[in-house]
Design goal:
It contains 15 helices and 10 strands. It is 43% helix and 8% strand. It has a 5-stranded parallel sheet with strand order 4-5-6-7-8. It folds into 2 domains: 68 residues; 311 residues, TIM Barrel (Alpha-Beta Barrel). The longest helix is centred in the N-terminal third of the chain and has 36 residues. The protein is an alpha/beta fold.
Length: 412
Amino acid sequence: MFLINVNLVDHCQSVFDLVKIITIHTFKIFANKTIHILEVTKLSVFMKIIMSIFCCCIIFSSACAQGVASLQKMEFEKYDPVSTLVVPEHVVSHSKFPFVDVHNHQWGMPTQDLSLLIKDMDILNMKVMVNLSGGSGDNIQKGIKNVRGSYPNRFIIFANIEFKGIGQQGWTENAVKQLETDVKNGANGLKIFKNLGFNIKDKDGKRVPVNDLRLDAIWQKCGELKIPVLIHTADPKPFWDETDEHNERWMEIVTHPGRKRGADNPVAWEVLIEEQHAIFKKHRNTTFIAAHFGWYPNDLAKLGNLLDQLPNVVVEFGAVIAELGRQPIMAKQFFTKYQDRILFGKDSWVPEEYKTYFRVLETSDEYFPYHKKYHAFWRMYGLGLPDEILKKVYYKNALRIIPNIDKSLFQQ
């Protein structure tokens, strides 16, 4: 009487299905007119058991569902598993050779206490910091005065262009004149921020492209003055792509939505990059330092072709070391071939983060994390660069390209 068809049990998809079958089978027994009183008693007990099992199933299933839901709700940003990989580790707190950081920003240099900077620089083995945020006119004069009055051989300052009023009569001539004055007062280069191409507008409200003809005289003057132009154009290409599960920069975009771009915000990525390359090609007597590897750290073959065509262009790897660290073979080949064209740059001033750069450049460590997960969720590998290449990247190339760095600070 209590036997249940085995085939039915085999087709059960869950405990609930099994309870359902047992219940139906029980009611069929009740419907049988030949049932005995003893059987009814047994069935009554059996039904109580079934109901108990049913209640337990509900409680158990609910608990399981909550547990699974809890796991499914874990945000990707929080998922940071500890690797079980056991490999040699070399945490490098300071560079093997003294270095020049060609990409730094110290907005308060006219008034700040430089001794605090020097303390951190000495720990890192940074002999010279290039402050790209010097400004122009009175601001850069004050910054240079502060440097010369305290640590005259430890800082290099680049000037900036004031684009306000571009298109007005005499703007170009005045901008060139101001640049000449800034260099005379102690500036050793020109920094162009990414707002050129993004949101700089002329007197008529039109976007000023990177290769605007009204700027040609500035690039030409830099060549005449023999000062380099460190230029940042655009941002990583994925900022222009769809923000979906296929975008490597998804986490950065959703945590920093202001960085999202599009074909009309302000223009396509390719347009901005082409505008930058146009001035490289047009002004071959001017040295350009393409910031962030020209946004081709993820396509070194493309970047190599660009360097082959443009001997007046060099690169620095500020904020893109994670791209290099995930392709150690290709990156080491690139550093070997273009060892005279690469400068050390970091960008944001966070002393603790420099050790990531040192570790990628100097060691052969495997599978170690980047310091900002929203920039790079992947692991990296050291390039293990030889000493001669390290020296060029750390300081020799900078000594050749940026004027007035004190050479006595470095091993020759």
